[in-house]
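Researcher: We plan to redesign the surface later, but first we want a full-length starting point. Tokens attached.
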């Protein structure tokens, strides 16, 4: 169960351009079972409407400590006592400085001072402001008072600068809170996952494919995101919802999946190849529908590009995890694939009638050079979480001390 189930979260939104992402935080918190109320500063109200937050939270939005109707019953004290967590996202340099100094000059800072709730801050500011010694000293003072900081992230900023200072993405913020604030096993890493089948056209209306549903790969992507990773999911043609916090790229053919994955793999730390990629494809797909005429029909097939082997062979290859779906001699065939493609790890399972494909559960054995770990039949969601923990442990073991 999520750490957020039944928790009362007070979201404070301050005057950063990242405020446009804050309604998504509300939505994700509520998906995790949290109750959410929102307080906007005056600057935040110039960037995003209170109506938006009221719509996604289902609760009235507060902003002014001089709200006569609310304050007739000491509303700021009632809010301060109501909250289990006070999350300020985005948190500007200004509000961080005010909190460090114990200022209570608006509703949000007054609530923080009057509450025993856990304080969580997701900073958002220009990279020079974040790097300034005053800001860093203020953050350190708040950390000493047990405040939790999530982020900031690094990258392009609205002002044109590049560097640390961007607010962490809503999915990452909520995932951290869902884990009780703890870093995940894959915190800060980029993970690329491929999932589902591919389709190779015979003509405009027919194709060659397989029975993969994509459920295992999607579960792995979800578990990796929950473990703190930035996850890119390259999906074949499946009818599955995109997991929370995951960036999805849809593909259909093996070549499309190959190209999309290779475009993402350059800065990846881990690659998990859960897709059932077609080994062969029709050599010459017909441009028009093939008509039924002769009693027999011959189809010439050629090898498809080997995505897993290509990634493992890169000079700066990520930690590469393959899957092996076998109908017999499971560990023997999986070991051959592990060694031949020079993988870091392989996850092997038996497939066939009533096994794995389209099912909601799975049973696997994980192999790596010099080691193995079997997993009993579990739901694919539960199994994915255990697989991600195993992958993280092996990845960390491979890193320099």
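Model: Full-length starting sequence:
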């Amino acid at each position: 169960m999520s750490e957020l189930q039944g928790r009362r979260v007070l979201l404070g939104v301050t005057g950063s351009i990242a405020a446009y992402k804050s309604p998504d935080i509300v939505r994700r918190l509520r998906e995790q079972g949290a109750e959410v109320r929102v307080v906007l500063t005056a600057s935040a109200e110039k960037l995003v409407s209170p109506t938006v937050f009221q719509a996604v939270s289902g609760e009235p939005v507060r902003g002014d400590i001089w709200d006569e109707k609310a304050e007739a019953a000491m509303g700021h004290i009632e809010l301060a006592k109501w909250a289990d967590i006070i999350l300020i996202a985005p948190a500007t340099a200004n509000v961080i400085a005010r909190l460090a100094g114990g200022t209570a000059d608006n509703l949000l800072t007054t609530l923080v001072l009057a509450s025993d709730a856990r304080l969580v801050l997701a900073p958002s500011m220009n990279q020079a402001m974040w790097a300034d010694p005053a800001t860093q000293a203020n953050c350190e003072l708040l950390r000493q008072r047990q405040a939790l900081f999530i982020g900031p992230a690094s990258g392009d900023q609205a002002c044109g600068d590049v560097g640390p200072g961007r607010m962490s993405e809503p999915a990452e913020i909520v995932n951290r809170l869902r884990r009780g604030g703890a870093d995940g096993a894959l915190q800060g890493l980029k993970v690329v996952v491929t999932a589902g089948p591919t389709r190779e056209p015979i003509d405009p209306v027919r194709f060659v494919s397989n029975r993969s549903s994509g459920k295992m790969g999607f579960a792995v992507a979800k578990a990796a995101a929950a473990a703190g990773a930035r996850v890119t999911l390259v999906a074949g043609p499946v009818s599955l919802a995109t997991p929370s916090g995951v960036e999805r790229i849809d593909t259909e053919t093996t070549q499309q999946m190959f190209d999309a994955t290779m475009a993402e793999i350059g800065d990846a730390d881990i690659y998990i190849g859960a897709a059932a990629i077609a080994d062969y494809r029709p050599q010459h797909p017909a441009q028009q529908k093939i008509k039924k005429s002769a009693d027999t029909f011959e189809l010439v097939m050629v090898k498809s590009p080997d995505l897993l082997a290509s990634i493992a062979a890169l000079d700066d290859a990520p930690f590469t995890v393959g899957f092996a779906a076998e109908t017999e001699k499971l560990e023997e065939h999986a070991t051959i694939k592990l060694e031949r493609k020079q993988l870091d790890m392989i996850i092997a399972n038996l497939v066939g009638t009533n096994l794995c494909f389209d099912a909601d559960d799975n049973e696997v054995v994980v192999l790596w050079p010099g080691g193995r770990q079997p997993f009993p039949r579990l739901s694919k969601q539960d199994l994915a979480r255990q697989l991600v923990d195993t992958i993280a442990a092996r990845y960390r073991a491979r890193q320099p001390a």
